[in-house]
Amino acid sequence: xxxxxxxxxxxTRADGELEVPQFTRNALxxxxxxxxxxxxxxxxxxxxxxxxxxxxxxxxxxxxxxxASKHRYEEFRDxxxxxxxxxxxxPNSPTLMNAGKGRPQQLSACFVIPVEDxxxxxxxxxxxxxxxxxxxxxxxxxxxxxxxKNDRVRSTKGVSSGPVSFMKVFNxxxxxxxxxGTRRGANMGILRVDHPDILEFIECKADMVSVxxxxxxxxxxxxxxxxxxxxxxxxxxxxxxxxxxGKLNAAMVFDKMVENAWRNGDPGIIFLDRINRxxxxxxxxxxxxxxxxxxxxxxxxxxxxxxxxxxxxxVKRVPASVGSSGVSEISCDGYISRNLLxxxxxxxxxxxxxxxxxxxxxxxxxxVIEMSDFxxxxxxxxVKFGNRKIGLGVxxxxxxxxxxxxxxxxxxxxxxxxxxxxxxxxxxxxxSEELAQERGPFGNFxxxxxxxxxxxxxxxxxxxxxATVTTIAPTGTISIIAGCSSGIEPYFAICFYRRVLDGAExxxxxxxxxxxxxxxxxxxxxxxxxxxxxGSIQEIAEIPADVREVxxxxxxxxxxxxxxxxxxxxRHTENAVSKTVNFPNSATREDVAEVYKLAYLKGCxxxxxxxxxxxxxxxxxxxxxxxxxxxxxxxxxxxGNKAAGxxxxxxxxxxxxxxxxxxxxxxxxxxxxxxxxKPMTSTGSSEPSGxxxxxxxxxxxxxxxxxxxxESTLYLTDGKGVRIPLxxxxxxxSLGSKNVQLVIEATDAQQVEVSTTAPATPRCPECGSAxxxxxxxxxCHQCGYSKCG
Length: 789
Fold this sequence. Notes:
By secondary structure, the protein is of the alpha+beta class. The chain contains 21 helices and 35 strands. A hairpin with a 5-residue loop joins strand 30 and strand 31 (723-731).
């Protein structure tokens, strides 16, 4: 077998003979920072084109291992290269980073490690996780087998400290290991809802400083959910001996999960009975955990081997007529495509191309398993020789809807998504069956559900190469490389500010939106900057209504539609769907509870929610004058008192309601840009207090915000109607990465006390830019950093 030498990356054929990939500027930045091979000085020694050739050449080497394809190496090498060069498909990041760099090569994204109820098992799991994190993988753990806190330990005659205490050991080990030499590892921690320590587990991330290297989810059972709906108690079971040790009210526990998820996004939930109904090899045991982002339920020591098709590339253009809407439209395959360019053509889904792509991608992913060097023998045994699970998913769904002129928040979009995934599932299963004819089925096939006529997955007993074939995985970084939207999420913005190498900030515009804007005559640099600041076009009247209807962003989508899409894709996905249900900061606990219940009723395997700003809520007391300030609560309840700002559009002013100064949640906005205020000093004197002004949603131009602040008058209003102006008086440091300083000016007669909370966007730990929450994972669109892969 041949492998590419990192020092000779220009390969065996000239770059000029290869199709040149058309990467965006941002994709090139991410590739150089995270994927290209570098010399000892950290300088790239391969081109993006060379990287794709390196990966394609290495993965296609697997074809030589099988009689049916050993003479077809060059054919599949070239097909794999074109697949990636055209941004029609991308494998998960470890494959792009490591394939062809030399052995051993770890090409899988995430693993599940068992944790049994013994010190040896616990610290074996810590060691195995460290080894995996060192190679660039993430890990999932179920702590449900550990005995509860204060349970007797016979060998020491002492008591157990419980699962949460041991999670902190795993967290500390993760903190010490830089993942793949570039970032800390990601973990998922899961505890069954009937574990006696479930309440402590639910609260373990409430302070937002403990177990920070974990996502956590509660493993829910159908028995528990039915008890929630009936308002009944349910039993707690000691996993050491199976004995019932107590009862809790299911509704109370459910409300506590909701409360904590509302506050900071954790815990998520997974439905254990549901994921095990889709366990293809139940004779090996139950699936108790998932990978860090929740889309891949796995048995102990199984791995995620993932890749995603760019749906925006699965289209073709056809002639169309002008419909009643005044734009080009065509009815095709059960949906209506409208081209907002109104040029006499429409895009439609190219089903033939999609089918061909699915078959090639399944082959690619099976070859990845063949070419992987797994970090532990136990992983090799079950992944390569046992189940050979793969997960083909999608990205670019929001782009596809833009091209077809279909609003994300519509039933037509949900129906199309379900049809697309059903089609992909069908052809992925067929492709795996074809590979089984060439290469043989996965090792555990004879005992699997595919040989059980009573199981829904039974298909006449046809052998399959892979125990599972489909997953909707996070695509935060690979979607940046492919130049498309991530997973099945809506876009977080269609215009946003991006810093470039010289520190300047440029407005980045969605290419199709820009094309439509220019063609329809409403494009201007000023408008694009305004959109970047607002984060949405829905209230900009100069943009035509049909355009506003289609170019939806995540902030415009209600939680209901997020969940409808997740459920539609889940119905035709063998593993699970990584999707975030996004809520506005004003969402209530009841809103979150409704989504959790709907996720169960609609057949989802789990759900993750994120309320805007909830993971970085700053509590501050603004004391003006000599009055003693009251202490604010940790996180005030959203009560409709969110303040608006008097910005460049001359609309509302920020104000707090009530007849006396009381703590209330206030969000200051300038125009439509939300501003968070942070305290700089707390001297307790009557002098004006200094505060930071910073943008809240997308990474907008701080100079623009500063200009708005200088040209506007922002106020806080006390309960007596006295308005206290906020005035920009000082700019600190470089506005490319720093904040803008504000003070509140007030006379003695204007002494008030206002306690505010300011929701703040999570920041990238590497470049400081805004992180977006989607697919159950945080991603930086500036530098490509992803918290979970």
